Amino acid sequence: MATLNTKFKLNTGAEIPAVGFGTWQDKDAQEDAVAQALKAGYTHVDTARIYGTEPAVGAAVKKSGIPRSQIFITTKLWNNAHHPDDVEPALDASLKDLGTDYVDLYLMHWPVAFARGDNPFPRDSNEKLINGDTDYVDTWKAMEKTFKSGKAKAIGISNFSRKETERLIKETEVVPAANQIEMHPYLQQTEAAEWFRNKGIHIRQPKRNLLQGPKHGQTHRRPHPRRDRQEIWQERRAGRARVGYRAGALRAAEEQDALAHQG
After folding, report:
1. Element (H, E) at 163
2. N or C: which end of the chain has fewer CB within 10 A?
3. From CA 260, how far away is CA 262, in angstroms rounded?
4. 136 among known catalytic residues
5. Distance separating alpha carbons of residues 53 and 24, to the nearest angstrom
6. Cβ atoms of 186 and 213 closer than 8 Å
7. How far is residue 196's CA from residue 46's CA, in Å, rounded to a whole number?
């Protein structure tokens, strides 16, 4: 079972802590929450521009007194900043709020662009989201520059399918260091996970999905009846979270802390 001390190696050579503390929702409570998490031994904190929690994360890291080099920080580029001219300024804004001059991992949150501007969810007069015309490949090329400059020690993707990732690899220079996708005992994505690993792309899996279980009206495939899965489900008394952590460890995938409900 993965612990706070477990680490995986990215294709950059850097090590990423297996268990991360997510900061989605409850923006006003995140500074104290992150401070407590760091005190408890977490060394990986996950945030995103759209979460609005970067200032709280930065304040908590500063308050902790722990050297920046000992904390792994992940943040994400939001959809309204996909235009190549907006990518570095967006990262600069994140760095300012985080109080650091680099992030350990910078993810493209979605392979979808919204219209450029300050509004994170631009809508027309009919309240329909306004999409942008930036190709995610062009966004990635701009992210590659942040990697080469050192502002992002590693760059990755989130919510990308295999097909989208294949195109990204084919048309750009830097292979993503990680892809954050929904993956848990109810939705295992075994073949996809194996493909990503073969490409040297680390899988990150948010744990909120496991605690929620199948949504109302939704049918997820039940856990695979292999021996290791049977052993895992014999530990039901430990609760769903423990089952998910061990399942993730068996797949050598990064495990995000369920307490934070990150998305």
Report:
1. helix 162-171
2. N
3. 5
4. no
5. 7
6. yes
7. 21
- Tell me 217's DSSP state: T
Q: Please list, residue by residue across 228-241, b when 16 or more beta carbons sit within 10 angstroms of its beta carbon and e when fewer do.
A: ebeebeeeeeeebe
From its phi and psi, is residue 127 left (phi > 0), alpha (psi between -120 and 50) or beta? left
H or E, element range at 69: none
Strands (E) across the chain are located at 7-9, 15-17, 19-22, 44-46, 72-77, 105-108, 155-158, 178-180, 202-205, 254-256
* HSE-CB of 84 using CA atoms within 13 angstroms: 8
Distance from the first to the final alpha carbon of the chain: 23
Q: Which amino acid is residue 169, in one-letter code?
A: I
Alpha carbons within 13 A on the beta-carbon side of 235: 15
Residue with tokens 């920080």: 73
Calpha distance 164→198 (Å, rounded): 16
Query: Residues 111-149: pLDDT tens digits?
Result: 999 999 999 999 999 999 999 999 999 999 999 999 999
CB 19 within 8 A of CB 256: yes
Taking the chain (263 residues) in consecutive chunks of 10 residues, what is each chunk's mean pLDDT?
Answer: 84 95 90 96 96 97 96 98 98 98 98 97 96 98 98 97 97 97 74 91 72 40 44 45 46 43 41
Q: Which residues does 251 contact at the CB level (< 8 Å), separation at least 6?
A: 183, 193, 203
- Token match 């939705």: residue? 187
Residues 90, 67 contacting (CB under 8 angstroms): no
Six-digit token pair at 198?
Answer: 């073969």
CA atoms within 13 A on the CB side of 198: 9
Q: What does the DSSP 8-state code read for residue 144?
A: H
Per annotation, catalytic residue among 42, 51, 136, 186? 51
What is the residue whose two structure tokens read 């969810």? 121
